[in-house]
Amino acid sequence: MKAINEKISHLSGLLLSWSSPKTISRNDLLSCESLKFNDEVEGTKWEEYSFKSNHPLRGEDERSQTPPYFYKIICRRSGARLLLLSSTRQIIDHLVENELNYSLKLPLHRVQIAVDTLVKDITVSPEAYVLTFVHARTPAFGSPLRSVSFYGDNIAEASFFRDYIDLMNVFTCGIRNITSNGELVRLGNDGIISFYSSYASNPHQLTEIENVLSYLSKKRYLDSNTNRIN
Amino acid sequence: MEIGKQPSFLVLQSKSETIEHIIKLVPTQKEALMDWTFSTRISPLLGVYEYGTADPSRYDFPGDNYIFFVGPVHPIEIGKCVNKVTKLWISLGILNVVICTNSLPEKRKILKWVLDQNIQYELWSVKDGKIIRKQSSAVVTNSTKWRKQLGGLTKLKISSEVDEAIREYAPLMATAMARSERIPFSLATDLNELNQHVMDLLKKPEQEGNDKYQIFADLLLINAGLSRFTSQIFSGTPHITETECHFKSHSLLGIGVPTIALRNLLRFVEATLGNALIPEKFAKLAELPNNQDMCARIPSNNEFWYEDYLSKINIEPNKQNKQVPILGYFSARDGFRSTTTTISAPLATVSACNSVQWSLMTLTHEISHIVIDAVLSILYPDFQSDVEVANALKLIQNDTIIGVNLLEEIRRYLFYTIAGIEEFIDFRSEDGFLAMLALRKVEVAEIMVHVFDFMYFYGQDINKYIKGIWTTWGTLPFGQDRTKDYVIRTICAAIVPHLRRSNKIEELARDQVIDSLKELINQGLGNNHVKQALKYIDTEWDELRVEIIKRHQLVRIVRSFLFSEKISMLFRGESSISGGEGATEGYILKPRKVEAKKIHNPLHFIEVYTTSKTPSLAESTWMFYILAFCLYESY
After folding, report:
1. Which residues, other chains included, contact A100 with Cβ-Cβ below 8 Å and sequence gap of 6+?
2. Taking the CA atoms of chain B, what radius of gyration do you get in angstroms?
């Protein structure tokens, strides 16, 4: 398999689980012949894999680049849960739907993240994280106003946002650590996770993402019994 | 788990020369009809791609087979224990998963799972298509309370008509209760509450000595609903060979899943209405002073019209005062119809609720009636009360009187509006006033219901609304006779987004309605009634415009005093979404894919996924499965 020397600036993917308490092992993932283990990310429990695909998944021009195509996959396994990331979500969608769900003993499900509840909780009583981005449906207003987006360093501090939060169904949010600058990660209701990557120079970033996931799990914002992927 | 596009048909029958039952699967209903006997019963089964059953097929169950009927259960759950080489289908019956295996170990594994999960089942051992052995879940006898209550009814002597209705009611309810005890989804609780309501109803003559014919009428409605409900949901339960459904195309297994879906939808609405408390809050507008002028003199862009009055009223939901659960059933004759204790949906929705013509969204019209009827009972005087009539009459006998509180001013505004519509009656005389109110009550209610439905359930999306109501009207045999009424109601609803404007409101609403109706024709959904409506608007606009202007204030009453964005959130909110735009408005469910993913808001789900022009049993079944098995809240 070709080595990939891909520098990824943005990571996007899915939080997944399978319907068994059994831990997902590296060997489980390697039962998929298109995946090859590369290395562990130094100083972390994260892993890098190469994914060989016969389909272009990042908009490659098939006339100038012939198959197979190789993509870097960043992975964190934890019990029955699995976070898979790559430079675009389409790569992860394809890997899961067309490869892993055939090679694994049990199909993977998307883990639903209760983003709406998370945002409303942060708004009422902020703890470790604050809001940097909110995208929501506004069903109360019907067709005159369907959805809204908010951007800022600490959105819930604005009374304008707090006044109307009860009229929103939030489906994507961005959060940052209260004590640091810059958005840490974006979370979607259906297990979508994305962030700007600097882990090559700052492996600590991956630990911070891990802390976010631990927080979500501890606070019961994660539901692994939903969003099955066929 | 992806279900097939077309059903096969499971056929059960006896030949005249023998009493043994024969089971077979045929690919078309026609094939079943060609071999029909006195005892034939059928039900459609939808196959599943993962189990190799998706295409309609013929199967005579050759050799030794074990056929399980299991349910009610989410197919994903039981799918975990069923080998992919085993045949699996889903049905609309309450025993909603049908499994066939010729492997003894597989049979034992499935049976163990079903017993461990305490799910209802019936298992047939079949040899060359003949049922040679049947076994089923153990019968559990639970409550004795309802048995005693129903037994006690036989002693009642109210009147010959009522007594006869009771003689029908008691065994009907006994059948429903006895069978519901074996099924989850709180069916037994629902039926217990309905039974308690009937018990209370029957106590009234002794306590109050009043209208026996009203009790008779109420009992008839309950009996009619209960009869259909029982047949539809409990047919195809153990012992299957003895429980035939009156709905002949589903006579073998019944339509338990659609009935549970309808029940869940109604329970969601009841819970939401119970939290919204719209009539109760509206009545409390009497506590808000009328700081303004007469409603009729306040400019249309004044913020008075756009305050969220209902959200200013705080009422704690009274959990003690729980309403009787409304019984939902399917009926070809009744169609969409609501009473105080029942709601029916057309039988056609069972195989066509994925299509706009047969959308379950039409139920929101019936739900809106429940609210608006309650609101009108607050606004209208009690005709039997001299005091109430006199007080109401005072409000319009003197043009200079202004309502002392907001509710009184709204009442005055309504009476003047009705007087404007019914212009040939002397509304200042008591007789004229009461006649005017009585004559126009149905029309007033209908217009207010349309505006309420448009705002709360269709989110003011005029194209979606017109598509919803006009395609449904197209299925009614009498649609064309009521073109004028339907056009007026539609344009009244379409006025809502333009209420802040001071002129040309009617023309703007008219133009939007015309565009939407023409779009229906372009989409092949506009039957003659749509063409007739367009012609009517074109040729009779001058008269129509006057009629709409006279009814304008009814729209304003709903918009300003019955609509609340906070309450709208209860009806339209859905946190189980992944996006805000697009055809599925954030849902990632795919038609015909039965998934474990759950939803919160069944009304929003129906609104989003009822878009097809073509009825499909498979897609309708999928929708019923989501409504029956995939709601977060259990009601």
Report:
1. A29, A32, A108
2. 27
* Other Cβ atoms within 10 Å of A66 Cβ, number: 9
Residue of B nearest to A113 (CA): B576
Strand partners, A149: A135
Q: Hey, what amino acid is at B328?
A: G
Contact A137 B455 (CB under 8 A): no
Give the DSSP letter of residue B340.
S
Round to whole Å and give the CA distance between B472 and B123: 41
Residue A119 three-state SS: helix
pLDDT digits (tens, 9 = 90+) for B51-68: 999 999 999 999 999 999
Reduce the DSSP state of residue B108 to 3 states and report it. Answer: helix
Residue B602, preceding peptide bond in cis (omega within 30° of 0) = no
**The model's pTM:** 0.89
Burial B327-343 (b: 16+ CB within 10 A, else e): bbbbbeebbbbbbebbb
Q: Is the pLDDT of residue A225 over 70?
A: no
Question: What ipTM did this prediction achieve?
Answer: 0.79
Contacts of B493 in chain A (CB under 8 A): none
Q: Which chain A residue has the Cα nearest residue B453? A: A142
Alpha-carbon distance values, B596 to A112, B36, B70, B85 (Å): 11, 38, 18, 22
B415 touches A: beta carbon within 8 Å:
no
Dist. CA A197–CA A42, nearest whole Å: 15
d(CA B452, CA B575): 23
Is residue B213 within 8 A of residue B156, CB to CB? The reply is: no
